[in-house]
Amino acid sequence: MTTFRSLTRVGAGVAALAAVAATTNAVSARSSYPTVRHVPTGISVNTEYAAVAPDAAVITLTLTDKTVKGLPKVLAPGWHTFVLKDSTKDGRDVDFIKVKATAKSYGVKQFKADIAKANSDNGATAAQGVSDVIKHAQAEGGIAAPKYYAGTHRKLMVNLTAGRTYLLDNTSDGNGPENVSLCKVSGAATKVKAPKATGTIATYEYGFRTVHLQSGTHLVRFTSTGAEAHIIFAAKVPQGTTTEDLQKALSDPNAQGFPPGWTPWLTVNPMTHAGSFVAPVTFAPGSYALICFMPELKAGPNQGAPHFTEGMSTVITVS
After folding, report:
1. Mind listing the pLDDT tens digit for each residue in 97-120?
2. In what order do the strands lie in the sheet with 313-318?
3. Mean pLDDT score of the chain
4. Are strands 163-171 and 57-63 parallel, antiparallel or unpaired?
5. In what order do the strands lie in the sheet with 276-283?
């Protein structure tokens, strides 16, 4: 059965594409997809990113199957660098979720209940669970870090704002126990300058904008500019792969894992509007598929269907 986690961490399982395709066919009953509205260049690099100050706040999070160690109960507002120390077999994810100031009664118990719904095998139930979380909180994003992801480093930089922030941690295949940690963000802001990102990947309805992505290891800013929550999954694909090839692979009900030559590269976990963080990414020269597996949250015939059914998939070239 396809769960919310298997959609958002599609790279973790070889049968994920088949499961997603089956769900898409059952929920949306579509055989063709709209044109992908992808803008590969044309927006300027955000100039707010100055060099990282020498006194950058670095926090090491030790991830286990039972708990997250190292997250302070209180952090100052501002930029923090989180380094993931993971000794588990397959790797775990981290998501930063900021509770809205208006949701003062949104506690850990209700948050865990909503996340449990979000992991339901039923698409509509999963979509409702995600909607309930988003109603009360801002999904800042995070990274899936299975150990076979070629482009992912176990580090990310997050600009924390005053209030309550949940750190959600799960296995990268979504099947393990989930750990929820609460951190209060308060006090005087850090003096850490924002990291200087050389590239950007932004999401919107329903596409991706990429700016100045280069081969090698660089800091990349991930951000959500749309009204809906989105996910960024990237896989390196054979040179010459087209968007049409990608759409065909995603809609194939008989798919058994990834097509030949696909290499899972990175996954950015759900980000809602204005969610943003910076992380180092290594790109090899070549072609990459960008796909959003976020289920549609709005009620209707497509509720629960992944956003690639709305055209949110494309192929980009990194040189």
Report:
1. 999 999 999 999 999 999 888 878
2. 74-75, 179-185, 163-171, 92-99, 137-144, 263-271, 230-237, 286-291, 313-318
3. 80
4. unpaired
5. 68-69, 57-63, 78-86, 155-160, 276-283, 216-224, 199-204, 207-211
- Nearest-angstrom CA–CA distance, 36 and 33: 8
Backbone φ and ψ for 129, nearest 5 degrees, come out as -65, -45
Query: Could you tell me if 18 and 31 are in contact, meaning their C-beta atoms sit under 8 angstroms apart?
Result: no
Among 44-58, 226-240, 266-280, the range scoring the smallest mean pLDDT is 44-58
How crowded is residue 283: how many other Cβ atoms within 10 Å of its Cβ?
A: 23
Query: What gap in Å lies between CA 71 and CA 17, rounded to an integer?
Result: 34
pLDDT in tens, 63-97: 888 889 999 999 999 999 999 988 787 778 899 99
Structure tokens at 179: 């750990």
Whole-angstrom distance, CA of residue 15 vs CA of residue 22: 11
Name every residue whose Cβ is closer than 8 Å to that of residue 258 and which is 6 or more positions away in sequence. 14, 17, 235, 264
pTM for the predicted model, two decimal places: 0.82
Rounded to an integer, what distance in angstroms lies between the CA atom of residue 128 and that of residue 120?
10
Q: pLDDT for 150-199, tens place per residue?
A: 888 889 999 999 999 999 988 755 566 688 999 999 999 998 999 999 99
Q: Dihedral sign, CA of 297, 226, 80, 73?
A: negative
Which 8-state DSSP code applies to residue 9?
Answer: T
Torsion, Cα 198 204 206 210, to 10 degrees, reads -10
The backbone torsions φ and ψ at residue 304, rounded to the nearest 5 degrees and listed phi first, read 95, -15
